Amino acid sequence: MITKSNTWITLFVSSFLLISCTPLKESPPNIIFFIIDDLGWMDVSFRDSTFYETPNIDDLSSRSMNFSQAYASHPRCEPSRYSIITGMYPARAKLPGKSKGLTYEDSFLTSFFKASGYKTFFVGKWHLSMNGVYPEHVGFEVNIAGGDAGAPKSYFYPYNFVKSGSGKNKPPFINNIPKTNNGKYLTDQLTEISVDMIKKYSDEPFFLLLSHYGVHTPLESKQTYFNEFDQKKTQKQIKDTINDIKISSWTGEEKLIRNNSSYAGMIKSIDQSLGKIIEALKSTKQFDNTIIVFTSDHGGLSNRGNKRSLATSNYPLRAGKGHLYEGGIRIPHFVFWKDKINNGWTDHQIIGTDHLLSLINLVDLVPYNDLPPIDGRSYADILLGKDLQNHDRSLYWHSPIPRPKSTGDRASSAIRRGNYKLIHFYEDDLFELYDINKDIEEKNNLIGLEPNIASEMIDSLQNWKESVHAYHR
Length: 473
Known about the structure:
CATH superfamily of the largest domain: Alkaline Phosphatase, subunit A
CATH topology of the largest domain: Alkaline Phosphatase, subunit A
């Protein structure tokens, strides 16, 4: 049984500092964890998107190890981010459900970076603080804009007031962010803060977790970018028609094409953010010795149960944010470290619990056996071109709180084992089984054709839920 104890990790870190007389390796690498909110698997132009433009992301991807089967541990923000910080499945914390986020009893993998001599900075969206646990409590020396808010009221300063009359100005707000007098776009503001930190600490190893609020709703881009993509729609004769939306009683309304000019403009700002981060690293001669992780917290917003604006399409993946179909949980993910990490693609399956553990292993911060027991598995060997030992495992998801009027999803759990994925929908007690390698669109339900595989996976899913004491409403 896996247990979590912040007391344990505090004692370990204290012991680590006391007994370690050997500093980090000479010139230890900087680490930048660059996470986007709601960015779908198909929302980058290297995925053959003809509408979105991501030249900086594409360029870094071409020099990185890309994971074609990277998954978020949950199709919503808070549970997914919980697993990244702790290395634990969110179901263990009853997220979503009865839990209210991180607690001081959780183990925080982020603590090891500070304990190992890294300067540590958090910039952007936190969304894990309902119990009063903020970035500064989990190993970050600096926290800019990380608090209760899951999204800004507006992407334009002062960020906490809606731009249109369709929303309400009420908490939670984005706090602890420097004031600006020129109405600076939020993505640009967070980028400039990060760039300043990179330049200020160019002679010390640092760990920067840049957690952009973009491209979460509200869908607001800079006007020049909106105009640019609106013109592109005209040039490419991309029209908004009734055929853009597929209506299903099972998944609500689903957007089928990528043609939202505001969303495209928001993605462009994110791409430019990465470009400016890379420029800052190069200008301070740190680029060659910096690990950059690019990822998203879950799939793109493509489904709705009401009339909310739809951001994108995850096609050929099915559905999007909130759903346990591939569109809700499969994400773009790659890792860069010049001359140390192989560039290319791998189909190895990874999940959000794995990322920080992999970084800890990659830079040899802590002996593997000295880490707290967690759900994550390291993929550092894949990055270094080594054979991965004991890589066969199942991946699990648990989403017991449906939002039928928001993203059109249903209460469900899922398991991925090898090529197969099984989803259990509670309301109707229905099961769906797909061969993901042959059927990435999840069109052909094999539940009646593969009874033995289905039975084994149903048992495994149930056993896992019992082992983590998963919450059921």
